[in-house]
Amino acid sequence: MAAHFSNTVRPRRPLLVMLVLAASLSIAGCQQEGEGPGHREQPLALTPQEELQLGRQAYDEILRNAEVLTGGPEVDQVYRVSRRVAQALRIEPLQQEINLHLSGYRFEWQYSVIASDQINAFCLPGGKIGVFTGLLRVVRNDDQLAAVIAHEIAHALAHHASERIARARSTGNPLLTLAYDRAQESEADHIGLFLMTFAGYDPGQAVVFWKEMQAVAERGAHRPEILSDHPSDVRRIRRLEDWVPMVKAAKRAYDEGRIASPREGRKPQIP
Question: pTM value?
Answer without folding.
Answer: 0.85
